[in-house]
Amino acid sequence: MAVAAVPTRFTVPVQLSFYESPEKKRLPAGQPREWYVSHNRRLKAMRLTIALLDAGVYHPAQADNRTIRATAERIGVHPPSDITCRMVRALIRYGR
Predict the structure, then answer these.
(1) HEC string of 39-71?
(2) Rounded to whole angstroms, how far apart are CA atoms 79 and 28?
(3) Per-residue pLDDT of the chain (96 residues; tens, 9 = 90+)
(4) Whole-number Å distance between alpha carbons of 31 and 18
(5) Which helix or strand (DSSP H or E) is residue 86 part of?
(6) pTM tops 0.85, yes or no
(7) Under 8 Å CB-to-CB from 90, ≥6 apart: which residues?
(8) Pairwise CA distance, residues 56 & 73, whole Å
(9) Measured in whole angstroms, how far is the alpha carbon of residue 85 from the centre of its chain?
(10) Under a CB-based contact definition with an 8 Å cutoff, are residues 92 and 63 in contact?
């Protein structure tokens, strides 16, 4: 009777948390400053939206500024501005 060789050890790839910033890449040069500000704001809003959805906040009405800022503190992100909080609520609303 032939016995199949079963590996006793295997490696599992480590998945980084969604909340951590990925490797930083250089942004393209030559853009106006406002472009960089809005780009970073969108990235922060997406990170916060993912964290809120993982925490069970599925409706924009549940995501008031206090909840969003508490989530930012929990995942280690600087407190977002009112504009970023509004963007997070929009992402939750239109992601449904």
Answers:
(1) HHHHHHHHHHHHHHHHCCCCCHHHCCHHHHHHH
(2) 26
(3) 555 554 444 343 434 455 566 677 787 889 999 999 999 999 999 999 999 999 999 999 999 999 999 999 999 999 999 999 999 999 999 876
(4) 27
(5) helix 82-94
(6) no
(7) 60
(8) 17
(9) 13
(10) yes
